[in-house]
Hints:
By secondary structure, the protein is of the alpha/beta class. The protein contains nine helices and 13 strands.
Amino acid sequence: MISVQHTPSYDPAVIQAAVDRHFELLHLDELIPKEGKITIKPNLLLKRRPEEGTTTHPALVEAVVRRIQKVSNAQITLADSPGGPFTKQALEGIYRASGMEEVAKKPGAVLNYDVGSTHIPNPEGKLCKAFDLINPIAEADFIVSICKLKSHCMTGLSGGVKNLFGCIPGLTKPEFHWRYPEERNFCGMLLDLCGTVKPEITFVDAVVSISHTSSPAICVTIRHSSWLRFSCILSQIFSSKNKCKKRTLDTFLILNFRRFCFLKCCKSLRLGFKEKLE
Length: 278
């Protein structure tokens, strides 16, 4: 299920209203666990300010945290493994620059400084049968991914699936680029990673994208207790080069496109969303 909300700015009230509407339309309150560990995974690729459009905006992260707090007493952790060394010092600088430090100063969420990882098997993977995942992801009871819509030199588009590459610790990431140098195999590996992480909810921060071409919107997709099965054309999600074959993936994926392409792909994949674009 997919929900799309026109969101013209990062004004906190506007963002909170959009997030609340997503929760209402998709009945997300019913999915949130009342206790346990919830990990929110934003895109914190580099030490960049929110206005540079590289990382997930803190206003969206804070709005999601506030909404979760209304229905849950779970421990909420903000966690990502940015590019470069996965160290406490690197995380401190990125949290400060990206605005996540300010989000964590308010009650409700803590920043991750655990730089360990856990080996997680994925026997159903097509290309990759196991991944080392950062501990806050491996140990979470419930995962919320909040990605940043932007272009990517290899996959063409960085969205809900590509965001999960940040679940792999630090300098382990270049190994995957070396192992899967071709676009199709790299995208296939990302699908295997998505099937291992299994985020319950994925938000896409597309109010401002790094390509500056997408319509202002925040999108959210969820999976219920039973996974939706659908044939996913990789080139529609990752690239415009149309080199990838079909793969079936047991998950809900967000389609991060401009308005026309989004509606076209929803139709071709027989996906529905709760509220039409105005």
